[in-house]
Amino acid sequence: MNNIILDIRGQICPACLLISLKELNNNRESIKKGEASLVVLTDHRDATRTIPNAVTAMGYSVNVEKKDGYYEITIKKER
Amino acid sequence: MRSRLKKRDRKKVRIGGKSNSRSKGKVRDEKSVKLLYKYIRDKVNQLLEIMGTKPLREEELDEKSIIEFDPIGIIAESFKEILEHLREKNLQLQQARDYLQAVFDAVGVGISIVDKDLRIIKCNERQKELLVRDIKDIEGRHCYEVYCGIDSPPLICPAIETIERNREVFLKEVTKKGRIFQINTSPLRDRNGNITGVIEVSVDITDKKKTEEALYQAEKLAAVGRLAAGIAHELNNPLGNIIGYAKLLLQSGNLGDWEREKLSVIIEQAQKGSDIIRGLLEFSHQRPLELREVNINNSIERVLSSMESLFKIGNIRVKKEFNLIPPVMADEKQIEQVFYNIILNAVQALEGRSEGCIEINTMNLNSSVQVSIKDNGPGIPKEHLSLIFDPFFTTKPPGKGTGLGLSICSEIIKKHGGSIWVESRPGEGAVFNILLPLRMSLD
Q1: pLDDT of the residue at B294
Q2: Do A50 and B52 touch (CB under 8 A)?
Q3: Fewer CB in 10 Å around end: N or C, chain A?
Q4: Complex ipTM value
């Protein structure tokens, strides 16, 4: 599976959410088909709430992982 | 209409431009643009709030990039996807609900959901069939009122026990509206585990109970039968001795009339005892069937001719309606005994009647042969109908019957894989029906 990395470290909300949604919208086809997943790298804690909330409502599955100094939010096709 | 509106709009813009000086117009344009940006920012913030995030800060997206970045477009796209997802989920939910409803209704037990005040929230079709029948609009009514037909909860109520103790309750046997049920109640809980109502499951065990009772009765009878057969065998020898010695005495010449008369009574009574024992032994004896192809019409004819003298004495007319029937796999001797017993019963029922009549009918029914033996005697009282095939049941005066005739018939017919039943109403005679399969199944 193709991982689309979106590094928005340094950005804060609501821009984090908007940028992530824009990227998701641009890659909707491949993500919905399960061919790709979107990996958002952010150091803004609020984004670990707003992004998962929005994308689960859109029918994606999401996983948040804490890395060293940032978070990795992986957005995939719903199982 | 559309062109007229357009014209007016254009006109307005032109009028606005004409009525101001150029510098004034520029200030005004800048103001309008600012207002427009503010409007866009407000709307974006409103949408962001719906998405659960913070409003935009001035430095985050300046006026130029707010247009270029197109946040409204991004959110609109996301909303479109949310709606699609919701629609899909709704459809799935609807399907799941339909499946559940179908299962809920198709399951063979009655299910009812009641709230904590014992008001019915929902119940399935089976529950309605079992306990509701003619009551309409049951939702919202108390379960004890609808299902038990009473005004207040019963003393032992599994639903109340479930609510009070927050646990499942099982009632092994309870009678409601003339039927017997097994009731199981379990708590209905919300997401937090708080009890919000009760799920009541009712299993109708009326037929099962009846079968169990019949089985119990049959086992009891079988035990009595075995015991009686054992005793009967032991009694046969002393009875034989009594009869033998009484006959010896009778043959000796030096007896007075009085003694002779008494000896005859002894022989007669001992003979009756011996007859009862023979009947009992026949009933209890599991003789294997000697099967061969039997023409039932011929069998009945043979029985009838052996009973001719009885019909003559009783002044009984015999009406036969024999249809063409295929041969039946049966034990001829035993089957003839059945016909003999039933016809003899009819003859005895017609005793004293001036126009006694026995009608015998045979017919072919798919893979069986049915024989009906009808008399116009006094009929059988309703309370006796379920007892007449039981051993030792008799309505004849003491000494006249053993009460074994019909139970022997029933035993023989059962061994042939057939069935025997009686239809009768007091005053309207009785019909004994026998159904014999053409071929017995292997088991």
Answers
A1: 93
A2: yes
A3: C
A4: 0.91
